[in-house]
Amino acid sequence: GEDVEQSLFLSVREGDSSVINCTYTDSSSTYLYWYKQEPGAGLQLLTYIFSNMDMKQDQRLTVLLNKKDKHLSLRIADTQTGDSAIYFCAELSGGGSYIPTFGRGTSLIVHP
Amino acid sequence: ETGVTQTPRHLVMGMTNKKSLKCEQHLGHNAMYWYKQSAKKPLELMFVYNFKEQTENNSVPSRFSPECPNSSHLFLHLHTLQPEDSALYLCASSQDDGGELFFGEGSRLTVL
User: Fold this and answer.
1) Strands (E) located in chain A
2) Of A39, A43, B85, B99, which residue is least crowded by CB atoms under 10 Å?
3) Cβ–Cβ contacts within 10 Å for residue A6, how many?
4) d(C-alpha A91, C-alpha B92), whole Å
5) Span A15-51, pLDDT tens digits
6) What is the DSSP string of B41-95?
7) Are B48 and A92 in contact (CB < 8 Å)?
């Protein structure tokens, strides 16, 4: 079946850029997502990218997709303490399923 | 109310108790999901309902019993749980076209 891998932790200093990486195995992925989970809350969609795009920018967020290597990244510019959360990568297969496959999540810790 | 609402937010129960988790969505979606989120484990998809019909059951023990009386409401009935069932149970909803999943805040369950 499909597999989505992420590193579990990332620690950055406030004001630096954060880069969270994700790899996936499904070559028929149509959509790739980044969800954010703040402490004590559910997941919330942060951004997504179509598989025929290689970059998407939204304010401080930049998503890069390397479809050949099946590698997705999320860059957060000028990281703030409020960005501390768990970030989940997810992919949607092109096989007709509407249920995304999630990674384990990366805990981003932002320290002063 | 808008979005996905879960009740109760916190629940403590003994192994012989019977309790239920409730989820309600006001987004007009036709698919609803139960996920289990345990510490240091990937997000686990438990059940999916589409137009009130169960379409996924990922080998979940029978002590968890879902119920979907209509496309806006989803329940998870709990009976004779084990301490390892302690986790955050997340409900989500979406359209069945591969769009965004909207998550509730979760129900934190502790089994004593």
Assistant:
1) 4-6, 9-13, 18-24, 31-37, 43-50, 55-58, 61-66, 71-76, 85-92, 101-102, 106-111
2) A39
3) 23
4) 16
5) 999 999 999 998 888 899 999 999 989 999 999 999 9
6) S--EEEEEEETTEEEEE-S--TTEEEEEEETTEEEEEEES--GGG-EEEEEEEE-
7) no
Contact B100, A45 (CB under 8 A): yes
Q: Do A48 and B105 touch (CB under 8 A)?
A: no
The tokens describing A105, both together, are 């999540």
> Coil, strand or helix: which one is A98?
coil
Query: What are the residues facing B12 on neighbouring strands?
Result: B110
Is B106 in contact with A41 (CB distance < 8 Å)? yes
Residue B19 contacts residue B13 (beta carbons within 8 Å): yes
Answer whether A7's CB lies under 8 Å from A107's CB: no
Q: Please give the single-letter amino acid code of residue A87.
A: Y
The answer for residues whose C-beta is within 8 angstroms of residue A97's C-beta and 6 or more apart is B98
Residue pLDDT, tens place only, B13-49: 999 899 999 999 999 999 999 999 998 788 999 999 9
Q: State whether B45 and A99 contact (CB < 8 Å).
A: yes
Q: Which residues pair with A45 in a beta bridge?
A: A35
- Kindly report the number of other CB atoms within 10 A of residue A76's CB atom: 22
